[in-house]
Protein 1
Amino acid sequence: MKILVAKTAGFCFGVKRAIDIAFQIAREKRKEVYTFGPIIHNPQVVERLRKKGIVPIDSIDEKKDIKALIIRTHGIPLKISQEILSRGYEMIDATCPFVKKAQHYAKLLNKEGYQVVILGEKNHPEVQSLMSYAGSDAVVVNGATPLPKLKRKIGIVVQTTQPLEVLKNVLSGTLKLAKEIKVYNTICNSTALRLNETERMARKVDVMVVVGGKNSANTTQLTRLCEALAVPTYHIETASEIRKAWLRKANTIGITAGASTPAWIITDVEKRMRDIGG
Amino acid sequence: MKILVAKTAGFCFGVKRAIDIAFQIAREKRKEVYTFGPIIHNPQVVERLRKKGIVPIDSIDEKKDIKALIIRTHGIPLKISQEILSRGYEMIDATCPFVKKAQHYAKLLNKEGYQVVILGEKNHPEVQSLMSYAGSDAVVVNGATPLPKLKRKIGIVVQTTQPLEVLKNVLSGTLKLAKEIKVYNTICNSTALRLNETERMARKVDVMVVVGGKNSANTTQLTRLCEALAVPTYHIETASEIRKAWLRKANTIGITAGASTPAWIITDVEKRMRDIGG
């Protein structure tokens, strides 16, 4: 049995940066520091941080003793940032710099008079944060459902983890509806590279194992991509989920992982596979 | 034999306007008035104007006795406009208002710091005129040959008679090369409607006859579209070119025509077909 591990699997720049910030705070043994939402979409990493005293909260009304808040890598809505500052809490911003850029472009497009169209998943925290900068006439589209009625002049920003193909399709669709379109392609490079490598890998293996948070959008994208290529695909969070039956008839197995999956989990998965597969 | 004539065949708004201007000048019997280039891409109309004393010239050095110049519907390069004015000739501007708009956007994009990408046919006078407004780093792309290296920030304008499908493809391609893209979809509505009706018609007839100047870009587009649908297609300028053999086995024949084809030629073609086809 041959096991291939994607070179692009695991932490991207923004996630690594956010985790470094959070663990640094943990090392300083500061009290009453929380993360706003899970800092990244990986329950195992969030759990490790919790054990070190950095706990996620979903609302600033949840705790009374807040001293500082670490902002999740996906960013938070503008109103919440303002509320955090107005309450005098320290804000430790671990928002991915690429998400910050997308927020900036959403704000700029709105200021320039464009109706902002955000391509992404409506309920994803990154998209929620982008919405808060995009003005009252902004809309979210996901590339799967039909486009809404749009104004003549639209500006597009993209959730950083969307596939380029979806942007291409949405852009083609908007061409029929709007006369002036300004696009900031805010898809981050590591997303594109990871999707490309995963696609190439999935085409040559018998089984794909995708490792990462079940709540991770980009990990789910990887799973969907492999499934679309009709290769048996399993999305797991940790090595303990691997079943011997998956590997039985496989000569070659591919492992890929989302941007929020830590290296130690990927190594565990590979090791467990070798143990089971013999 | 059933003959269908496309409702969208023939003069568009901009061509009708230019022809009205030119024939009005002819009626005024003014002397030493020329058109810069053929006013529209239809040799038969240009010939009718010539007989009324309005002759096309290709260069302002061609004649010594110029009093006034009618600017062709496709527009002319900025430098030539300036030269005409500096020589004190009267300029009668019959440029299509939609082409004027595209010129304006090319200029605006350049001013805003975008590398201007013009989608169209490099040697077409409309594209030549757009180029003159688009700045020194502007490039022309045609959707068929690979895209050149582009800057990070590009602005797209489109020759008014290009098909939307080509714009979609070019836009998808530029997404890989540029991070910020501003598109003015300057394809004129009548082009889109004509292409759509022609496509629907070509799908249900046995033979398509496309009427219009051999030098007309949008007529050639119609021909190419029909050919791509694998229906026998004939591009003619006048009724005299129709051959009986084309109609022999056809139950239904479709007639469409470019934006620069006058109604009298379309009527002639239909009449001649009925005469031949019985």
Protein 2
Amino acid sequence: MSIDVLQEKICKRKNPTVAGLDPKPEYIPPHILARCYAQYGKTPKAMAAAYEEFCKGLIDALAPIVPAVKPQAAYFEVLGHDGMAALENIVAYAKQKNLYVIMDCKRGDIGTTAEAYAAAYLGSVDIDGTSYAPYDADSVTVNGYLGTDGIKPFTQLCKQRDKSIFLLVKTSNKSSMEVQDLVAGDRLMYRVLADLAVRLSTDLIGQNGYSNVAAVIGATHPQVLETMRAKYPQMFFLVPGYGAQGGTAKDVQYAFDRLGRGAIVNASRSIMCAWQKAGTDGTDYGARAAEAAVKMKNDIGLYVRIL
Amino acid sequence: MSIDVLQEKICKRKNPTVAGLDPKPEYIPPHILARCYAQYGKTPKAMAAAYEEFCKGLIDALAPIVPAVKPQAAYFEVLGHDGMAALENIVAYAKQKNLYVIMDCKRGDIGTTAEAYAAAYLGSVDIDGTSYAPYDADSVTVNGYLGTDGIKPFTQLCKQRDKSIFLLVKTSNKSSMEVQDLVAGDRLMYRVLADLAVRLSTDLIGQNGYSNVAAVIGATHPQVLETMRAKYPQMFFLVPGYGAQGGTAKDVQYAFDRLGRGAIVNASRSIMCAWQKAGTDGTDYGARAAEAAVKMKNDIGLYVRIL
């Protein structure tokens, strides 16, 4: 679904945040791990089953509060095909629960390879006349270092299937400056990527005025958010780096327009691991995650009013 | 295994080429497809089984000729978890056959996410004391747009496990110029990435003088290859874009040093689909692939003598 739909979901819940689903073994409540180990032994299948149960529980708890979830593919890939089966099930479950699903996989390649990635995460593959969509997420993160050849297969699917992408523009990490902050001619490097996103936005501007070719800009760069908000009025932002990485509610306010629209802020650990911070045994992980999500919503609400 | 091992395998076979494993439904010989459809129906499982049989057959035919294979993850990802199971089996089979395996997945992320990608493709994951390595490739392609934060988790595994990476420097596609050829300060953008690779090469230079932090530079840019070969004497090159994309044996000669070392050239379709070009029914796809691989070796041999 398009950025219009994401914005609608945000407005409906008055909550511009997305819950990152980045499971790691140490985040899983012991009762889930114990059950999965008992069933499958100490295997990738057991861990994948634990990730699936944990993430589905988070989705159940968070669906009334957040408009979107963002599964991080890497954590599933490291479990091999068992991990990917869990990821498929988690995406389907989140969509069932009416959440917008942003697949965070930062793919980027050229030609038919980029087409395969786009088909994998936003589209479908044809198997002798039968169409099969392994993930069918609403949106995907894309790395544009290879230029428009690498991005177009994704934007074509945005047009055909009413989806969106988030192009990496200015990432939240410290060393992003090594590449993204270099001056390339008259522009900073990350502006080059932002301009590519604009160029690829033809026929992809939604009814709310935002493009389905959106951008990732880290919460750790509030000044960049402020400048980019002013310079790119049609660009929707995904803002990672809130919480553990140092971004605050005060910082992310600059990502939003005057109506409190145009951006969504990600938090992962602070929500997933709220049960650990509370010092519980983890059986209440869903309730704790929900509390943390409401707290984040309220924190951002101090600075951003969604009209 | 390290770039030293790759170079040894190249020298032993006097063949600086890698066979890309980029399966698509239309490349698979009909007899394989028919058997897999009969067994599994028109499902992703059937197509994954067909990819696995096809790629293993190619590996059998090519192992005496080429030193390395390069599976392209995208084509397996589009089949969901069934595709990833096939990819696991193909990597294991290629390693058994003593081939160097370069996983072409162009991953790039930050922090613990980059660690998860590195663990997935070059390392292992710990499941309550039991170590599990889903792919355990010898090398992986990496996108460095996020800076050294995104690359270091991979280079750490290079050190710990004697592996290598290929950082995207100058890709073979036309639109690579939109980002990679911009002038950033005193350097072209792709040189910035090459310099990051050099910076991360500490303790990673092999006995043959080449770094385990290697680079991707397209065959479609012979002048870039020539300049880079002179400027980066310790940088090993993976050269895609040969054949279908327009790169020739004459073009790729500039990737090699005076001993005919320091680079490996990729071909995918010309080898995988040799049976189609020959107009056969596909039952001889292995023999045809072997012929095409020998032809490529000989074509490059006209320009490059490996000492």
